[in-house]
Amino acid sequence: MYNSKITGLGKYVPENVVTNDDLKEWMETSDEWIQERTGIKERRWIDPKTSDDTTSIMGAKAAEIAIERAGLTKDDIDFIVFATLSPDMYFPGGGVRVQEILEMDTIGAIDVRNQCSGFVYGLSVADQFIKTGMYKHVLVIGSENHSGGLERSTRGRNVTVIFGDGAGAAVLSREEDNSKGILSTHLHSEGKYAKELALEGPSTGRWVDAIMEENDPDDVSYYPYMNGQFVFKHAVVRFSEAIVEGLQANNLQKEDIDMLIPHQANLRIAQFIQKKFRLSDDQVYNNIMRYGNTTAASIPIALTEAWEEGKIKEGDNVVLAAFGSGFTWGSAIIKW
Ligand code: ACO
User: Fold this and answer.
1) Range in 60-74, 100-114, 213-227, 272-286 the model is least confident about
2) Residue 220 has what pLDDT?
3) Residues 6+ apart with CB under 8 A from 194
4) Where do runs of H (alpha helix) occur along 75-191?
């Protein structure tokens, strides 16, 4: 059995910055409300007038950087794992689009549908392929184009102000030293809460035809719905559990954490976790202020920035933790 380690990281965010004040064009909200409740100051939203970015294109851009930083070329990659809740098309998924955009050989590509936990799930999938010896280099991408599908009105504001667009990518490569790289991943789900944070239609449960036939002006099932406070309460519990589970599996204490990268759902959640685990500001990386919640892209974007800023060093214990729609949650413990 091998370990896998992250050998390259990359990120891409659209150029168009949307500040909290900019949102007032569409809805009743305020910079004060958004910052106080979420910590977000601005986010990136693709501007279709000036950019042809899509979920797959952004993912491919982040992937190119990650591959180059790994010292590899696209031809060295054996497999693609693509995590998103906002694919370019209903089907096929984004992984095959990346294979096409990067002009890769006919390698396999799999899509992971685990929303905010998507990158942690994707990392775990890639890790298993490398552990067994099946693949040597696997590309893991998290990418989201939320802006195209958000309800830009006061009715949708509790969801719309939170989400941003962007992509992050990691190359996972075979590591022969079992004390290094991804030490363990821990994945969970609780489907009974699926509807607390979901986009229900159009889907096989609610086809476009039915939505159009009913023509109900109050039907917003094609916009994401979130029971914010309910999700918040579960998030703080599950984040903590996932971190503790990961530490225990590796005989680590909370004092051993060098860097925690929480999924960027809400700065208040990250601050709660930081306080609970008695971590200093240097031990937790947050960038939700600049990007909002980019769902599957949030951890790889944050991981890339933390690494670029020199905040992750060889030998560090890096903890990734995520919670989101499904509900799904999980963690990854990495010896850098
Ligand atoms: N601007 C101004 N006022 C607003 C806004 C806004 N953008 N949004 C809601 N409000 C108002 C509401 O109408 C409500 O007003 P009322 O009291 O007059 O009825 C009031 O503010 C409070 O609304 P809540 O929804 O109760 O606000 P809350 O404090 O819960 O904050 C938030 C909302 C930020 C969404 C929070 O609940 C949260 O972060 N939840 C967890 C998010 C999360 O972790 N998601 C998981 C990952 S996402 C994924 O997996 C895709």
Assistant:
1) 213-227
2) 84
3) 325, 326, 327
4) 94-101, 118-131, 157-160
Name the closest-CA residue to atom 38, ligand 1: 228
Asked if pLDDT for residue 118 goes beyond 90, the answer is yes
Whether residue 96 contacts residue 152, with contact meaning beta carbons closer than 8 Å, is answered with: no
pLDDT, position 207:
85
Alpha-carbon torsion, ordered 272, 316, 110, 322, to 10 deg: -10
Q: Coil, strand or helix: which one is 261?
A: strand
Residue 290 sits at φ, ψ, to 5 deg, of: -95, -25
Find how far residue 15's CA is from the centre of its chain: 19
Contacts of 90 (CB under 8 A, 6+ apart): 202
Q: Calculate the average pLDDT of the chain.
A: 97
With a pLDDT cut of 90, the percent of the chain lying above it is 93
pLDDT given for residue 226 in this prediction: 96
Q: 56 φ, ψ to 5°?
A: -70, -40
Q: Which of 263, 266, 286, 287 is catalytic?
A: 263
Give the Cα separation of 193 and 329 in Å (integer).
12
Token pair in block for residue 251: 């005989």
> Helices 228-249 and 267-276: crossing angle, nearest 10°?
40
Tokens of 189: 């789900």
- Residue 93 CA to ligand 1 centre (angstroms): 30
226-247 average pLDDT score = 97
Which mutation among 20, 31, 112, 158 tests ligand 1's pocket best, with the greatest number of atoms within 8 A of CB? 158
| C-alpha of residue 160 to centroid of ligand 1, in Å | 10
